[in-house]
Design goal:
Length: 539
């Protein structure tokens, strides 16, 4: 990148940690700049989230075509989706197809889990060390570690004692797993648990669901895509991606411009019925615009969904247990389901409400609650992730003067545009904290393109050090915090507010996520670039 002696002493111009969608696309773009790039990936293949999360029933709950890469006409022309909401194996096949087409694997080093990354001020570079001791020197470090990639087991005593089969959903085996005739337990009822439960219930001898907090779920309404439909979809790609650029969170759906109480009771009910009968996230992100800011409005839509649950679950006592009481509809990520509630009408399925009868411990043969001992052949842990900052915390990242990023973020993340942190020069984060999440592939493409622009500037100007200013970080962090004010989502414990009761130090809510609109986010980042990277010190 720079003809100086220090450049010659680096192994790479850039190291990217992670070969998920963001790492793959970043590799492609940096190669176009002619940089020496290496991707370090812990797994044995590409795909990130879609490589690790192979649990039964895993699938998109955003429209497949809106969730693919948009940057290459060739990729768009050659890949056909078979379902509106693709199952995980199809998505993983797609990402392998992308890796083949772009010949990405020659610069990806698999089975290479990064243990540490230490800034070396003298050489203006990072030393990156793997768990197996191999180590590399790079000028720039780009993290593509994902917001939901550090799985967490429950902090229940005895997890190691169970003698049967057990697995966290994000560490699912590559070989097929049969549930036929088995006594299966699932702990956790987030988006993952719900997809798992509705699939396992089809064949398990018995399925017992241990639920701590019910979530508000809505129907996915998935369907196959016919050949003719695929042709029509492809013909509309330009328009579709344009729409994604314009909506608040880059989804095809966007909030209705009306407030809940602007319309009559009858109109409200008809609107919600329509949303409930349509595919995808419309009921969540295409609802009345005040649904997540006005308490009364939120209570009304929650009532509507609660009645849907009551109408679908035969046993009224079970239905009540499945209806959330500590948060309103949409204030946590809404899991989309396919006959999830009907599962509880099956004879082979039991719901255990562990708020009433908490789990005391995992035993050699099963799960002991305060009320009973349940024996199982298999326990599935759908217990979620140490989200957003967790994947950073697992790497010993040290910046200027050996400062640990984990310590720097002890009170919650602080960033510049969600991409940089002062004290951590030459480190850029893809889909890091304070980023617009929403339709993640759309955010990834923007994020990568912005970082690529910065890297192009560094290459062209021979820059060897770039760092966010303290003031820039403070201003952006304050801005992100102010965007969270008044939003009901930030009054609730969930991974989106940085809470994970299984992880020490993650019991208190933080503002880890950018809650503004994606167009606003992009405008701000474009402006920073246009002003010669305002808020950065370039050397
Ligand atoms: O994780 P979660 P997830 N004892 O944190 C429970 C994305 N995703 O993997 O709520 C008992 O939501 C915990 O209970 P509680 C999506 O963005 C996308 O399901 O803390 N229970 C909760 O029920 C999603 O939001 C797709 O009381 C314990 C569950 O485990 C995100 O990933 C599909 C426990 C964890 O739920 C995370 O979803 C799936 C304990 N000790 C996921 N600890 C797509 O379709 C935890 N729980 C693209």
């Amino acid at each position: 990148m720079d003809a100086s002696a220090t450049a010659a002493s680096t192994d790479f111009d850039a190291i990217i940690i992670g070969a998920g969608m963001s790492g793959m696309y970043q590799l492609h773009r940096l190669r176009e700049l002619g940089l020496r790039v290496r991707v370090l990936e812990a797994g044995t293949g590409v795909g990130g989230t879609w490589y690790w999360n192979r649990y039964p029933g895993a699938r998109f709950d955003s429209e497949s075509y809106s969730y693919q890469f948009s940057f290459s006409k060739e990729l768009l022309a050659e890949w056909d989706w078979t379902e509106h909401f693709a199952p995980q194996p199809e998505t993983l096949r797609y990402l392998n197809f992308v890796a083949d087409k772009l010949d990405l694997r020659r610069d990806i080093q698999f089975q290479s889990r990064v243990a540490s990354a230490h800034w070396q001020e003298a050489g203006r570079c990072w030393r990156v060390t793997l768990e197996d001791g191999r180590s590399y020197v790079t000028r720039f470090l780009i993290t593509a570690v994902g917001p939901l990639s550090a799985p967490t087991m429950p902090n229940i005593p005895g997890v190691e004692d169970f003698k049967g089969e057990s697995c966290h959903t994000a560490r699912w085996p590559h070989e097929p797993v049969s549930f036929e005739g088995k006594r299966v337990a699932v702990i956790g009822t987030g988006a993952t648990g719900i997809q798992t439960i509705q699939e396992v219930a089809k064949t398990a001898g018995s399925l017992t669901v241990f639920q701590r907090t019910p979530n508000w779920c809505a129907p996915l309404h998935n369907a196959k895509i016919t050949r003719e439909e695929m042709a029509t979809l492809r013909a509309g790609y330009d328009e579709m991606f344009q729409r994604c650029q314009e909506t608040f969170s880059c989804f095809l759906h966007t909030a209705d411009p009306r407030n809940t109480f602007d319309v009559s009771e009858a109109e409200r009910q008809a609107f919600w019925e329509k949303l409930y009968s349509e595919p995808g996230f419309g009921i969540w992100v295409g609802n009345f615009k005040d649904m997540l800011t006005n308490r009364e409005a939120n209570a009304e839509v929650s009532k509507f969904i609660a009645n849907k649950i009551r109408s679908r679950v035969k046993d009224p006592k079970v239905a009540e247990k499945l209806i959330p009481t500590n948060h309103g509809f949409g204030t946590r990520r809404v899991p989309l389901e396919t006959k999830y509630y009907e599962v509880y009408n099956q004879d082979n399925v039991t719901l255990v409400d562990i708020r009433e009868t908490p789990i005391e411990r995992i035993t050699e043969t099963g799960i002991q609650t305060t009320a009973a001992q349940y024996d199982f052949d298999m326990i599935i842990y759908a217990t979620g992730f140490d989200a957003i900052t967790g994947s950073f915390d697992r790497i010993d990242i040290r910046g200027v003067n050996g400062m640990a990023l984990k310590d720097r973020w002890e009170m919650g993340p602080e960033t510049y545009l969600g991409v940089l942190v002062d004290g951590f020069p030459n480190m850029m984060m893809l889909i890091g904290p304070h980023m617009a999440l929403g339709n993640i592939p759309r955010s990834i493409e923007y994020n990568v393109d912005w970082v690529t622009g910065l890297m192009r500037t560094a290459r062209d100007r021979g820059l060897t050090r770039l760092e966010a200013t303290k003031d820039g970080v403070t201003a952006w962090t304050d801005h992100v915090k102010s965007l969270a004010e008044g939003l009901l989502t930030f009054e609730v414990d969930s991974w989106m507010t940085g809470v994970n009761r299984n992880v020490a130090g993650k019991q208190v809510r933080t503002v880890a996520r950018y809650a503004g609109s994606a167009p606003d986010y992009r405008a701000k980042c474009d402006d920073v670039a246009a002003k010669g990277y305002e808020g950065l010190v370039l050397a």
